[in-house]
Specification:
This protein is an alpha/beta fold and 526 residues long. It has 16 helices and 22 strands. It folds into three domains: 36 residues, no CATH class; 370 residues, Spore Coat Polysaccharide Biosynthesis Protein SpsA, Chain A; 76 residues, Ribbon (Seminal Fluid Protein  PDC-109 (Domain B)). The longest helix is centred in the first third of the chain and has 20 residues. Pathway: Nucleotide-sugar biosynthesis; UDP-N-acetyl-alpha-D-glucosamine biosynthesis; UDP-N-acetyl-alpha-D-glucosamine from N-acetyl-alpha-D-glucosamine 1-phosphate: step 1/1.
């Protein structure tokens, strides 16, 4: 098999001719794979990305300190008039926000967009993170919990305004590694009761991994390294995958973007949506207070005349510990970013069509399994040998003309699933946080529970689970008032009668139409 001269010219122009170094050693099938990979690469984009970061790539420790000093000097907290807090808003304000948000949902103006490109590698599994289940009594996965929250919120909005137009389309951005499994998973579970036409999958793009001179690394002698271009690859994908056109066709005006791994996420949260509408925001972020000054989360702040996320590693310890006043324990930079954002469609269209190319890539220096200069595959390099380039979803904040920030309680809305073991951000901590939230809901509804109920959940492993089909955020639990409950508690919806049921799992599997998911099958039923 001869190499097409056009391909050789493309590689020569891009300074990537090394990709054909092992051509003579490959069989026909391997050559086809290599040519396919080469033809898939946008070499101009790779060069542009590398040129944009190469000046900073070799910056040593002195340069990093200089950057830190500059950030410390110019970063400011979000101005009060652009921020709101669920703890500081009055009951009347919260209800006003909620009604505004529900109204927009009832009119079909709101969609949700899930960033679901990540695999569960750190959780010890080889399938998409959204398919993971945290060992709830129901065996529901992250995807199923989120789908059922959408269903419940649609019901609330339609009942509130006596409409049938309250549909929340669910756009799901996958990656090359998660697309096929995710679509198959949703099909095999009948889309968890949502209509197929209201779930739109689209795939983010990839970029090759590079060495420090901008040369593409080979994963095998016949295969290029590839990695997703970060959750900020959203903006390119919105444009190239015709997602913006689909949103416009559906008359979407407001988009709620969130990450897959937060077990407490409130999709299309009507209070957040309503707050953003009240503020006339084109772009907004939901935040939580940092647990400690040096917590490893980015903070949202003002830098110059723009808004952005400053990573925790870029802030000096002195700045991280700054208080609002001598008499206050409140941190100056306390708006912890949780990947939970609001955008107007008009803002996204402007960013994607005019500003996406201005978003700079972030560099991650890594030990990348690849073929070395001697033609030997090294699975675990002893030293950092390359870079991966990615953009972040919050990189568009500086383009906002009317930015806003809404602070929520961590215990109500943020418990991420990041680690397979340990004491933080694990399946166990997510399960605990969700169940303790459900305990609070029952107590607020007037149910009687054991005095040491939280201890039973945290230390003995007793369970309390309320289906999202019953309650989205603590509402609709009046039937528990005055009732005496002991653990375990499980409340599910009988979709035939629309009445709560508690005798799980026998009736659930018969009446809910969704078979609980077994981890033994990785959530995929064949």
């Amino acid at each position: 098999m001869e190499i097409d001269s056009a391909i050789q010219q493309r590689l020569s122009k891009a300074n990537q001719t090394h990709l054909l170094a092992y051509w003579s050693e490959l069989n026909d099938e391997q050559r086809q794979i290599l040519l396919h990979d080469i033809n898939e690469v946008d070499f101009d984009r790779v060069k542009e990305a590398y040129d944009g970061i190469k000046h900073d790539l070799f910056t040593g420790i002195n340069g990093e300190n200089k950057k830190q000093e500059v950030i410390d000097d110019i970063m400011e907290p979000i101005p009060d008039h652009m921020a709101g807090s669920i703890d500081e808003a009055s009951r009347e304000e919260l209800e006003d926000y909620r009604q505004k948000g529900l109204k927009a949902i009832s009119q079909g103006s709101v969609c949700v967009l899930l960033l679901a490109g990540g695999q569960g590698t750190r959780l010890g599994v080889d399938y998409p993170k959204g398919m993971f289940e945290i060992d709830l009594p129901s065996k529901k996965s992250l995807y199923q919990i989120q789908a059922e929250r959408i269903r419940r919120l649609e019901q609330i909005a339609n009942e509130q305004f006596n409409t049938k137009t309250g549909i929340i389309p669910w756009f799901i951005m996958t990656s090359e590694h998660t697309q096929e499994q995710t679509e198959k998973y949703f099909r095999s579970h009948n889309y968890f009761g949502l209509k197929r036409e209201n779930i739109i999958f689209f795939e983010q793009h990839t970029l090759p991994a590079l060495d420090f001179q901008g040369k593409i690394l080979l994963e095998e002698k016949y295969k290029l390294t590839k990695a997703a271009d970060g959750n900020g690859g959203l903006y390119r994908a919105l444009k190239t995958r015709s997602v913006l056109d689909e949103m416009k066709k559906r008359h979407i005006q407001y988009v709620h973007v969130y990450g897959v791994d937060n077990i407490l996420v409130r999709l299309a949260d009507p209070i957040f949506i309503g707050f953003c509408l009240k503020k006339n925001a084109d772009c907004a972020a939901k935040v939580v207070k940092k647990t400690i000054p040096t917590e490893a989360v980015g903070v949202i702040c003002k830098v110059g005349d723009r808004f952005q996320v400053v990573e925790y590693s870029e802030i000096s310890e002195q700045t991280a510990h700054r208080k609002k006043s001598d008499n206050s324990d409140e941190l100056v930079f306390n708006a912890g970013n949780i990947c939970n954002h609001f955008f107007t469609l008009n803002f996204l269209q402007d960013v994607c069509l005019k500003g996406e190319n201005e978003l700079r890539y972030h560099v991650a220096k890594k030990k990348i399994p690849s073929v070395d200069t001697n033609g030997i595959y090294v699975d675990k390099p002893s030293q950092i040998n390359g870079i991966k380039l990615e953009k972040f979803v919050f990189d568009v904040f500086p383009f906002s003309k009317t930015f806003a920030v809404w602070e929520v309680r961590r215990e109500d809305e943020f418990s991420p699933l990041k680690n397979g073991s340990g004491s933080k951000d694990t399946a166990a901590t997510c399960r605990r946080d969700l169940m303790i939230q459900h305990v609070r809901w029952l107590q607020e509804a007037g149910a009687y529970l054991p005095l040491d109920v939280n201890k039973h959940i945290e230390t003995i492993g007793k369970t309390c689970e309320i289906s999202p089909l019953i309650s989205y955020a603590g509402e609709n639990l009046e039937f528990t008032k005055g009732q005496i409950y002991d653990l375990p508690i499980f409340i599910e919806l009988n979709t035939d009668t629309q009445e709560p049921i508690t005798d799980f799992p026998k009736k659930l599997s018969l009446s809910n139409g969704v078979t609980p998911i077994s981890m033994q099958t990785n959530g995929v039923h064949h």
